[in-house]
Amino acid sequence: MKPSQKGYTLIELVTVLLIMALLGCGVQIGNRMVKEVTLKAKASEIVKGIEYIKQSAAVTGNTYAIICFENRILFRKLPHDTLYKVQLGQNIRVPAYMTGEHFFKFKGTMAPSKGGTLILKDKSLRKQARITVGIATGKVRVYYETI
After folding, report:
1. Among 39, 80, 109, 113, which one is least packed by beta carbons within 10 Å?
2. Number of H helices and number of E strands within the chain?
3. How do the pLDDT tens digits run along the chain, 147 residues long?
């Protein structure tokens, strides 16, 4: 801007708006990436917990279970010894129909008493992690999906 001018040129205004838009997009992209990494980290933590109680049940012959709540998951040696707790975080939730008594139970073998799928949903990200445990083998798999 020249000293005798009182305003900004159109090019200066457009340049400032472009820089602000790029910074805003960068923040949104970074926030989304953090949420995706958090969902994957929580799913990985739960898989490790499942593997741990599966192996513990086979070695000790005791009964171990996973109990789901809306915002946390407990890994227990039954009847009441909580071994490990996974706090899911601000946006990640377990659907209400999956919460309650012993979602997966292992007793003396590497295979669960019943197979099934545990779902972790992040509504703000519109993604979910499906953690599936096979009934015959006890094999744990994770699938990530857009909802």
Report:
1. 80
2. 1, 8
3. 556 767 788 888 888 888 888 887 777 777 788 888 889 999 999 999 989 988 888 888 888 988 888 888 999 888 888 888 888 888 888 888 888 766 788 887 767 777 788 899 998 889 999 999 888 777 889 999 988
Residue type, 18: L
Contact 111, 139 (CB under 8 A): no
Token pair 């933590």 is found at 45
Contact at 8 Å (CB) between 83 and 73?
no
81-87: strand order across its sheet = 81-87, 72-77, 63-68, 100-107
Give the closest residue to 90 by CA, choosing from 109, 76, 71, 103: 71
Compute CA distances 16 → 1, 2, 22, 101, whole Å.
Answer: 14, 18, 10, 56
Rounded to whole angstroms, the Cα distance separating 131 from 141 reads: 6
CA 79/CA 102 separation, integer angstroms: 11
Joined together, the tokens standing for residue 21 give 């838009």
